[in-house]
Amino acid sequence: MKNKTNIFVYYLGIGIGMIFIVSFLTSQIFMPLFFGRARTVEVPDLSKMTTTKAITTLINKKLHGVVKDSTWSEEIKSGFVISQRPEAGTMVKPDGTVYIVISRGSKIISVPNLVGLDVQAAWIKLKSLSLRFSIADSIYSGTYPRNTVVQTSPNAGDKVERNSKIKLYISKGFSNNIDSLDYESEYNF
Hints:
Blueprint: H1 2-35, E1 41-42, H2 51-60, E2 64-71, E3 81-85, E4 91-92, E5 97-103, E6 108-110, H3 119-128, E7 132-140, E8 149-153, E9 159-161, E10 165-173
């Protein structure tokens, strides 16, 4: 009985192997000979396109677009294609994949003018530009109300790298206002 089982498994293995061989020969040799090779598609030039437009262009060409990376670029605006693989003009099979690298914009930016803004508005503006801040000092001001930016370091218009820290000098208010740290309380804590 065990011998018959071994023979059955042996013939079953040979049958499955033959099915795989015939399927491979049919799909890779006979079908292309009789019906021609798979058609190819030319990869379009995606340079100077936004990410959305590049992906849409690839979909219309029956290709897949994958954002492989993003990097800083002084020449190409944020959100635009920097490079692609395979290059434009290359012939690929339909449903092929094109990898693109997107610009994150310039790493060097100008410090915005924050003088006159309250601390929260200054923080929002700096955060939107990928800048950080610290409060360097608070000073009395005859011009700006309490919790308003009086001065920055570096100054507005100076060039800095993104993620740099900007020092803010905040108004304590008008000089006749009493500072809570200078006020001597009648209460002892």
